[in-house]
Amino acid sequence: MERYHYGQLRFWEMLPGLVVWGTFVLALTLSFLAPLWVIIFIIVFDLLWLYRVIYFNLFVVIAWMTYRKTIKIDWKQKLIGIPGAEKKIHLVFLPTYKEGYEIIETTLTSLQHNSFPVDRMMIVLGGEEGDRAHFESVAKQAQEKFGGIFKKLIITIHPKGLPNEMSGKGSNLNWMGHRVEEVLQAEFPELNDEDIIVSAFDVDTIAHEHYFSYLTYLFCTVKDPTQSSYQPIALFSNNIWTASAPVRIGAFGTTFWLFGELARSERLWTFSSHSMSWKMLRDVRFWQKDIVSEDSRIFMQAFLHYHGEYRVTPMFLPVSMDAVTGKTYMESLVALYKQMRRWAWGVEHLPYLIDGFRRDVSIPRVKKFQYIFNHLEGMFTWATAPVIMFLLGWLPLWVAKGQTNAIIQAAPFTLEQLMRLAMIGILLSASMSLTLLPRRPGTVRPHAWITMLLQWALLPVTFIVFGSMPAIDAQTRLMLGKYLGFDVTKKQRK
């Protein structure tokens, strides 16, 4: 039997959605039949959520402090004398679809000016057959300007309509990987797989100036470096000053979530732009080409291939990408919703995990349980917590209004106080977000930072509209077998 593909394990595809909708139906029904018990549940739930907010923010602060220390280090200088560092080659994958040359040029310029020697960097620019004319034009410009700067600039075009593929980033990366393998074998046979470090970046990714020096340092100093991925801090801030307020909250919310995960590396999966070893990619035969969430799936491919002996090493330097935008305010909001839904489609990993763990008896049961529980619990909380706290939590209070039970009488005050305490997390996020902002463009008014603070008042709304709703949407689609395709994120720079 082949590895799991959509539709083969319907129970596990349906389970997350069934649990979410079962929770909502049960909460609605019991709000009318047994409002007291629901009120008690909501109070306990909010207490647990408050604990979780405090616990989470503790790790966010730890990661933020580590980040502030890390960005002050000259990692190029730290590399001097590190055994094996002089042999390392960086291979940067930049899949692209319909992006303008100005975005590609900005990314390649940032790679050129990184502190790592450019003569040990290879860049792979991968276009799509459906955008051939435009891509060939921008690729020609890139080749003319940057072709002689890096060790190698490789251009690939992913054909349309290949069997067993889904149009999207994963299938493009898979094609790029196989083409690069051919180039390396033909032109650079002297290179060892263990000395090549791969970074799979969105094409708008601007890496910190010491990113590749820091990555090389980690690769040369951690245990079993080829059996680890390397996850940087993802900032969606290239155009943050001109993005709409809900988009900015979504962007910073994603960054703070990643901060919390980076401080607990045992929970960490790969996300968005990140790095890994070329040896691992060849071992698993590159990215899976028929899924949406290739950035996190590649970690699970490696985890299963190495029988659980694979991990993610946190990187406390940032890579910066564009926040989603559209031509109009409403287009931006629609694009944000679709981006969040695509990320929430990571729920597709559950049946893949179940299938892989069932096949591999050598992975400890405790480790299997941890991964399945963390994945299920994370997806469930993403979909349900905002709805329970801000909507369903107040329904039994309305139903039980007028009753003299002491718990019912005290519940509104108790819930209000818990919400106020939870606001501490919002204030902390608002304060830290200012330290992550890039330099303000001259076209933006000097007092715009005030808006950057006030926008956090929208968090309860964005928490539901761009948090719960996309997650419910994704899990419901998987439950019904209406599989999501890859939606290219709209990004524009003003």
TrEMBL record:
Membrane-spanning intervals of the chain: 20-43, 49-67, 379-398, 418-437, 449-472
The keyword Metal-binding belongs to this UniProt entry's keyword annotation: no
Domain Glycosyltransferase 2-like per the UniProt entry, residue ranges: 201-396
Alphabetical keyword list: Membrane, Transmembrane, Transmembrane helix
Entries under InterPro entries matching the protein: Glyco_trans_2-like, Nucleotide-diphossugar_trans
Annotated PANTHER family: GLYCO_TRANS_2-LIKE DOMAIN-CONTAINING PROTEIN, UNNAMED PRODUCT
Protein name: Glycosyltransferase 2-like domain-containing protein
Natural source organism: Candidatus Uhrbacteria bacterium RIFOXYB2_FULL_45_11
Native organism taxonomy: Bacteria, Candidatus Uhriibacteriota
